[in-house]
Design a protein that fits this description.
9 strands; four-stranded mixed beta sheet; Rossmann fold
């Protein structure tokens, strides 16, 4: 815990707001079997409220409070994950509206477009400049995975990319999709790490948060953005489901299979609600996910083949 405590102690000692940086909220999955649409919905809104409340709880023990910067990485690797740049732009626009409505006023959104040196560049040029200046070579990353250093992350990203690409519109074989997902996973990890390297220089001394599980010796804090039926499911890979006054994240197909009813707000789908026996099934699925740890799930499966 020493690596995690050091930056916090600096803010506390100097009487400054604790700055927290969270690379997350990239954009909605392109697979509509997982999400309701391309825009943020109650899943994101609930996660933002959690982060805003976290800042409020920090203020109760540290009066200067906290500043939580969401560093959206969607533009960083949108081409590699199959999300159109126009969808990323719309996602960011709606996300900013949600952030502005938070009561604590401690959460902000930071994207590639907010970087002065990228002003005027096309989206693909932004990604190229970021990669050139901050990324490790892909072959070096492949070697790390072969040695097992990035294996869990590689498998997780590959799984997400395979799921996102496995849509009714895809006409190829599962084997071809799996190969493509493996190749794109390296690009996603490379760009994510480049974004992280850039953020370290942009926000020096900040406390780093991560949506991925982290070991105790890590400099980052792993943070879950809500209860979920799947291990560490995120709002942009699922839907919010009201199971009786509590929201649980799950994939859209699961909510539909449980008989969930879609609730609309402002003329578009927002979340699902479960009634009667379906609520019990959702509770059981959630509790089962809690008993299966992310590390145990990541340990399954063969090592990647090159």
């Amino acid at each position: 815990m020493a690596a995690q405590a050091a930056p916090i102690e600096s803010f506390v000692r100097e009487g400054r707001p604790v700055r927290l940086v969270l690379p997350a909220f990239p954009g909605k999955s392109p697979n509509r079997a997982k999400v309701l649409g391309r825009l943020p919905d109650l899943a994101e809104e609930s996660a933002l409220r959690f982060l805003d409340d976290l800042a409020g709880r920090i203020r109760r023990v540290h009066p200067p409070g906290a500043e939580l910067v969401i560093c959206s990485d969607g533009r960083v690797f949108s081409d590699a994950v199959g999300i159109p740049d126009d969808d990323i732009t719309a996602y960011h626009r709606e996300l900013r509206t949600m952030v502005a409505a938070l009561p604590q006023g401690a959460v902000s959104l930071f994207t590639l477009e907010d970087v002065p040196e990228f002003a005027g560049l096309r989206h693909e040029e932004m990604r190229a400049v970021l990669t050139e200046r901050h990324a490790v070579p892909l072959e070096e990353l492949r070697e790390r995975v072969r040695r097992g250093e990035e294996l869990h992350l590689y498998r997780a990203i590959t799984r997400f990319l395979f799921e996102d690409g496995n849509t009714p519109a895809y006409k190829g074989s599962r084997a071809a999709l799996q190969r493509d997902a493996r190749n794109r996973a390296y690009v996603v990890i490379q760009r994510s790490k480049a974004w992280g390297d850039f953020l370290a220089g942009r926000f020096p001394g900040a406390v780093r948060l991560s949506i991925h599980p982290q070991p105790c010796a890590s400099e980052k804090f792993g943070i879950r953005l809500g209860e979920a039926t799947g291990s560490w499911l995120t709002p942009w890979h699922g839907v919010a489901v009201d199971v009786g006054g509590r929201l649980v994240l799950m994939k859209r197909t699961q909510a539909e299979s449980l008989g969930g009813e879609v609730v609309e707000r402002d003329g578009r789908p927002s979340h699902f609600v479960l009634r009667g026996p379906a609520r019990t099934a959702a509770h059981e699925d959630r509790d089962g996910a809690r008993r299966t740890t992310p590390s145990a799930r990541a340990a399954n499966g063969p090592a990647p083949k090159e």
